[in-house]
């Protein structure tokens, strides 16, 4: 085996060059790998993905109990009921927490009521309520004008990790759509809903006066 | 069980029927086992298991092509070296979830730990078959040969297999319904993960350190004084790649077990792909550095060099670039292909180092006997069968045992 003893300096030079080359190339490599993330986020924000029956815009974090949270530019978090919850209970009065109240992620924070019957919904994030929406309900725009209250979140990053976004959130809505379709017509399975999107107040249509029990099941409360 | 129609007598709960036979009678269960995969597996076991008996009855000489000059065959090069490196997903994902706090990878932690556990158990079986007198393995532990790398390897195998066994007891006890032990085990999981990172780091690199005493036996292109670093870094790559490949397969093959679990496998795959891109990029440069450091570049023009370049360019650089491309353009398929090539590349590396490029100047080269190949194939088959058997029953792809989830559902309804 030939061993180039005399070439020690060129060899060392090559090693250092390789080390430095690695670091320089790594910068470009890292930028290349990371670069796609921003482009993807922009593309996702531009094209809302349709979710069958229930809509879900980009940038919204979904709680499995069908409430949503959106981080606003000022650092506050806007909270509301998702499209599914809105259509499930229909146009009913909502009992909101007072300004200054604390809400906890996953704990009941507000409720829809109809006389003695009520179903409470969980807050998607922890925080102190700083504003509530006093405008009339907007069932057609659950993620915009239909917002319910704003909170100042103390531990947003940890909270957001527990929430669903993107395809996982869409899958949640797809699964409830499927479950709902079976409840509406358990024998036929996926036939009825080929005709169109469900109207509001589905819970009352399916369960009548027991709408609150059905709603609680979906709201995990 | 819960969905039994009214008027139909619900059979009393039975551990054998509900938990072992998946709710079927023994006859139905056996009939369901007649699948092409099972027939092939049965054929392999029918040949391989008697061969294992033959090896212990007649000895290594009767079953293998090993010799005094070539004492390491595929039972070391493939079963041990490759089995262990492909088990690296256990500590890689465990560390990511429990120590680095990357909670979203939690969904793939248990399959990764199960693969690691089975990989280690199969590697230990392979090793027992390879050792001339396996019962003497106890000497490696208690003779305190602290100057020997094998001493470290032996202790690490024993300790880490034990840690993996303890990590595996969590889903196992959940399956048995032994609630009493679960809180303590869940708390212990982080400690076990720390131990698994320690033992894996030591073990994966020590397997590389074994080659430090063979600078002339191992081809200069593969030999470097820092080979243990290469072994460790490539183990991380193998761990990442294996988890991608395996989560793809298991979420496809066992789709009924993850239905409704809201695991976004695609997002996890892209995240793992990013890690894979960075580690393979570093590994590529470390490999090149090894060649430069050993002044071995003139070997690159030989046949050995061509083979080395196949490994370096085709199975390190190519998956690295594919990972980067796939992550940047959010192409999950590309990331999966990169991971599959990555797994093959690490397998190729271990086989190159411990079989192909070892004793490269020896006049007589070792070629495994058909019986050695068959025994290795048998061990892999047993590993796959065990993986499938466990994943169909225990809460591996989901957290709560199926029976518990059903009970919870009933309570809520």
The largest inter-chain interface, given as chain pair and residues per side, is:
A-B, 30 and 29 residues
The CATH superfamily name of chain B is Formate dehydrogenase/DMSO reductase domain
The protein's oligomeric status is: heterodimer
CATH architecture of the largest domain in chain A: Beta Barrel
CATH class of the largest domain in chain A: Mainly Beta
CATH class of chain B: Mainly Alpha
Give the overall pLDDT of chain B as a whole number: 86
Summarize the structure in words.
- The complex is a heterodimer of chains A (221) and B (413).
- Chain A is of the alpha+beta class.
- Chain A has two domains: 5-46; 53-221, Beta Barrel (OB fold (Dihydrolipoamide Acetyltransferase, E2P)), CATH 2.40.50.
- Chain A has six helices and nine strands, in the order H-E-E-E-H-E-E-E-E-E-E-H-H-H-H.
- Chain A has helices spanning 8-46, 83-89, 156-161, 166-184, 202-207, 211-219, and strands at 61-62, 67-71, 77-81, 94-95, 102-103, 108-114, 117-122, 127-132, 149-152.
- Chain A has a six-stranded antiparallel β-sheet. A three-stranded antiparallel β-sheet of chain A has the order 4-6-7.
- In chain A, strand 2 (67-71) and strand 3 (77-81) form a beta hairpin.
- The longest helix of chain A has 39 residues, at 8-46.
- Chain A is elongated.
- Mean pLDDT of chain A is 78; it is low at 188-195.
- Chain B has 413 residues and is mainly alpha-helical.
- Chain B has one domain: Formate dehydrogenase/DMSO reductase domain (Formate dehydrogenase/DMSO reductase fold), CATH 1.20.1630.
- Chain B is 71% helix and 0% strand.
- Chain B contains 17 helices and no strands.
- The chains are: A alpha+beta (221), B mainly alpha (413).
- Chains A and B meet through helix 1 and helix 4 of A and helix 13 and helix 14 of B.
């Amino acid at each position: 085996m030939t061993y180039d003893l005399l070439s020690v300096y060129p060899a060392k030079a090559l090693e250092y060059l390789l080390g430095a080359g690695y670091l320089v190339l790594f910068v470009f490599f890292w930028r290349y790998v990371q670069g796609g993330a921003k482009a993807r986020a922009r593309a996702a924000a531009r094209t809302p993905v349709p979710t069958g029956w229930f809509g879900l815009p980009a940038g919204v974090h979904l709680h499995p109990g069908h409430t949503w949270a959106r981080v606003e530019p000022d650092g506050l978090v806007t909270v509301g009921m998702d499209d599914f919850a809105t259509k499930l209970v229909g146009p009913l009065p909502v009992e909101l927490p007072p300004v200054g109240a604390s809400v906890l992620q996953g704990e009941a924070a507000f409720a829809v009521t109809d006389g003695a019957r009520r179903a409470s919904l969980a807050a998607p994030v922890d925080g102190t309520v700083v504003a509530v929406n006093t405008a009339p309900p907007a069932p057609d725009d659950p993620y915009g004008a239909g917002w319910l209250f704003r909170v100042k979140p103390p531990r947003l990053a940890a909270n957001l990790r527990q929430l669903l976004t993107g395809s996982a959130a869409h899958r949640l809505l797809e699964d409830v759509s499927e479950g709902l379709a079976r409840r509406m017509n358990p024998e036929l399975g996926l036939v009825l809903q080929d005709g169109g999107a469900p109207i509001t107040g589905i819970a009352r249509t399916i369960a009548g006066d027991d709408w609150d029990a059905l709603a609680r099941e979906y709201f995990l409360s | 069980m819960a969905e039994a129609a009214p008027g139909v007598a619900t059979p009393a709960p039975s551990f054998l029927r509900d938990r072992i036979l998946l709710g079927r009678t023994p006859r139905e269960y056996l009939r369901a086992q007649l699948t092409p995969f099972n027939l092939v597996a049965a054929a392999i076991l029918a040949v391989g298991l008697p061969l294992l008996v033959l090896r212990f009855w007649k000895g290594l000489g009767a079953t293998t092509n090993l010799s005094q000059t070539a004492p390491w065959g595929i039972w070391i090069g493939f079963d041990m070296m490759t089995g262990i490196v492909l088990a690296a997903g256990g500590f890689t994902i465990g560390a990511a979830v429990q120590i680095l706090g990357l909670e979203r990878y939690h969904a793939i932690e248990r399959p990764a730990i199960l693969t690691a556990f089975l990989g280690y158990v199969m590697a230990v079986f392979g090793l027992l078959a390879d050792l001339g007198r396996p019962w003497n393995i106890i000497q490696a532990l208690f003779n305190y040969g602290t100057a020997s790398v094998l001493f470290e390897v032996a202790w690490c195998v024993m300790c880490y297999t034990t840690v993996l066994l303890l990590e595996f007891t969590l889903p196992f006890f959940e399956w048995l319904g032994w609630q009493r032990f679960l809180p303590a085990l869940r708390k212990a999981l982080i400690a076990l993960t720390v131990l698994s990172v320690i033992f894996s780091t030591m073990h994966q690199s020590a397997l590389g350190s074994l080659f430090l005493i063979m600078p002339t036996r191992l081809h200069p292109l593969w030999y470097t004084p820092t080979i243990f670093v290469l072994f460790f870094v490539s183990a991380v790559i193998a761990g990442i790649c294996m988890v991608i490949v395996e989560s793809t397969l298991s979420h496809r093959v066992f789709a009924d077990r993850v239905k409704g679990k809201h695991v976004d496998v695609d997002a996890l795959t892209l995240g793992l792909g990013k890690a894979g891109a960075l580690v393979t990029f570093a590994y590529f440069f470390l490999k090149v550095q090894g060649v430069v450091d050993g002044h071995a570049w003139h070997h690159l023009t030989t046949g050995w060099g061509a083979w080395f370049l196949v490994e370096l360019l085709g199975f390190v650089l190519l998956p690295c670039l594919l990972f980067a491309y796939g992550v940047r353009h959010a192409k999950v398929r590309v990331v999966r292909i990169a991971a599959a090539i990555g797994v093959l590349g690490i397998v190729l590396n271990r086989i190159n180092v411990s079989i192909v490029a070892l004793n490269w100047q020896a006049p007589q080269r070792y070629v495994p006997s058909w019986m050695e190949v068959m025994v290795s194939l048998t061990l892999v088959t047993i590993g796959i069968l065990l993986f499938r058997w466990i994943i169909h029953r225990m809460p591996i792809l989901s957290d709560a045992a199926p029976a518990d989830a059903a009970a919870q559902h009933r309570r809520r309804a």
